[in-house]
Amino acid sequence: MKLARIRTADGIRPALVDDAGTPRDISGVVADITAATVTPDQMAALRRLSPDDYPKIKGAYAPVLDDVRRMFCIGLNYSDHAAEAGMPIPEQPILFMKVCPVTGAEDPIVLPKGSEKTDWEVELGVIIGTAAHHVEETAALDHVAGYCVINDVSERAFQSEMGGQWVKGKSCDSFGPVGPWLVSADEIPDPQTLDLYLDVNAERRQTGNTANMVFTVAQIVSYLSRFVTLMPGDMISTGTPPGVGMGMKPQQFLRAGDTVELGVAGLGVQRQNVVAYTP
Fold this sequence. Notes:
ten-stranded mixed beta sheet, five-stranded mixed beta sheet, single chain, 5 helices
């Protein structure tokens, strides 16, 4: 099952995406796709719907959840990305947060004021569906409602050259594109087999597979649940493969007028235009 939220002239409508990738309006069934929607009973009810029974709907993709509670992120979770960053492979998951509002899969990336090093990062996103507190690794995926594509947009100078935590380089406005779809966990039986890619101006920058994660999705969910009770509507961005601008020689970063396309197998494609900051 693929869920989405579509911006229309009449507001955002919840949608069920059919096999052809066409959103179908299910606003007569649910008011929106929210943290309450991704709980097991609600997801099971939506899974019984047939997309062909609902009208096609057109519009831009809004963020896949109306109310993402928290965005947890895992750093340096691909060994080859750690190498290009010149950093050791972590012995435990590196955790940071994105505290910007999430945006849609086709919303623009706005370069922050003063930015010279805005970078791209395709990542597998994990959406929590049931509370997870001190869960074992073997049961961790039972708490996952579904998956999505995330672009963990990052301003590297803010992140690494200004001291303190990474969060300030990760949380500028527009730095949280998620979607286009929320794909239910039953469609992704093994999240460690998914290809990822990202292109800038139609040139391939990142290619990877989640098999190369240092820490698997199950390990990440179990680990985080030791410190924080994960709740429905929480989202985890699980790290990026190599090919980011920071790791290129010479380094390359996003500029106004660039276009970014990225995707994860089975989870859809994002496309973003990069625009300059305006007060």
